[in-house]
Amino acid sequence: MNILVLCTGNSARSILLECLLRRLGEGRISSFSAGSQPAGQVHPQSIRLLDAEGFDTAPLASKSWDVFAAPEAPAMDAVITVCGSAAEETCPIWPGVPVRAHWGVEDPAAVTGDAAPAAFRDAFDLLRRRAEAFLAAPVEEMDSAALKQHLDACGRLP
User: Which end is more exposed in the chain, N or C (fewer Cβ atoms within 10 Å of the end residue's Cβ)?
Assistant: First the structure.
């Protein structure tokens, strides 16, 4: 099962969830991330947090979703957007037939100063809870309707 995680900048939330799904999925799924307007680099606080959690951050990059729309790109079974609920933040729309879900998380990259590490930790912890709930089910055996329902339920977890 291939899952693409989308956000606008692909520097924080989408990167965090890509890493979580890869680790927690233990080979059951392949996860990728991209942005509609990529920042061009992974946010330094994302790197610090992932390093502290023991993730390999060397291969991480902020990239355009165009990479995954190319003919040679892997076919996606699901696309998860992680943009927050702020009115000024626009989530990318993914064309095509993958199951789509929204797991809104406020943007920790918008937080500066001493509060930034806690904002990234909060986003990471929320995404981890949702990823764990998602992967607790036999998602690779679900049909599209069941997968959509399960993704949506996991996206509502606090």
Answer: C
- The per-residue pLDDT for range 23-49, each reduced to its tens digit, is 999 889 999 999 888 899 999 999 999
pLDDT of 86: 41
- 110/122 Cα distance (integer angstroms): 13
Beta bridge partners of 99: 78
Show Cβ contacts of residue 146 under 8 Å, excluding neighbours closer than 6 positions. none
Residue 6 forms beta bridges with which residues?
A: 34, 81
Q: Which of 44, 35, 86, 90 is nearest to 63 (CA)?
A: 35
pTM value is 0.91
Dihedral in degrees, nearest 10, Cα atoms 13, 138, 28, 72: -70
DSSP 91: P
30: left (phi over 0), alpha (psi -120 to 50) or beta: beta
Torsion of CA 116, 90, 36, 18, to 10 degrees: 50
